[in-house]
Amino acid sequence: MSEGDSIGDSVHGKPSVVYRFFTRLGQMYQSWLDKSTPYTAVRWLMTLGLSALYMIRVYILQVRGTKLITHALELHPFSQSIAFRPYGP
């Protein structure tokens, strides 16, 4: 493998600035998720609140394209629940 061939490596063999930025961003996001895991009720309330804000925004603005985005947001949890369905009776 030549120099700079691996993912995130710059020409000099060190990780690039962009790679380090997104790696750090991912670590911060994972840390936030890990800290919020015990607070199930708060997460559900935040989800419902953000969903209500989104619905109000869609209703007030009535921008083209929101039907497609809303449909995708509706289907994602459904497809995720099907993906993790246990096999068998």
Topology, pairings included?
Elements (H helix, E strand, L loop, with lengths): L16 H20 L3 H22 L4 H18 L6
Main location: membrane
GO cellular component, one term: endoplasmic reticulum
Subcellular location: Membrane
> How does the major sheet shape up?
none
Strand content: under 5%
How would you classify the helix and strand content by structural class? Answer: mainly alpha
* Number of structural domains: 2
Order of helices and strands: HHH
Could you say which overall geometry the principal axes of the C-alpha atoms support? extended
Helix content: 55-70%
Q: What's the overall average pLDDT, rounded?
A: 82
Description:
The protein is mostly helical and 89 residues long. Helix content is 67%, strand content 0%. It has three helices and no strands. It starts with 16 loop residues before the first helix and ends in a 6-residue tail after the last helix. The model has no long low-confidence stretch (mean pLDDT 82). It comes from Engystomops pustulosus (Tungara frog).
Task: Sum up the structure in keywords.
89 residues, Rer1, 2 domains, transmembrane, mainly alpha, transmembrane helix, membrane
Q: TL;DR?
A:
With about 90 residues, the chain is mostly helical.
